[in-house]
Amino acid sequence: MITIENLNFNHSKEKQLFQDLTLQLNSGNIVGLLGKNGAGKSTLLQLLSGLLSQKSGNIDINGFEPYDKNPNFLSDLYLVTDEPYVPNIKIKSFIKNFAPLYPNFDVEKLKNILIEFQLDENMKLDKISYGQRKKFIIAFALATNSKLLLLDEPTNGLDIPSKKIFRKVLIESINEDQLVMISTHQVKDIETIIDKIIVIDHGRITFNHDLYEIAEKLQFKKVPSIHNEDQVFYSEKCPEGYHIITPVNKNEETEVDMELLFNAINNNIAIHI
Ligand SMILES: Nc1ncnc2c1ncn2[C@@H]1O[C@H](COP(=O)(O)OP(=O)(O)OP(=O)(O)O)[C@@H](O)[C@H]1O
Question: Which InterPro entries does the record associate with it (predicted)?
Answer without folding.
Answer: AAA+_ATPase, ABC_transporter-like_ATP-bd, P-loop_NTPase
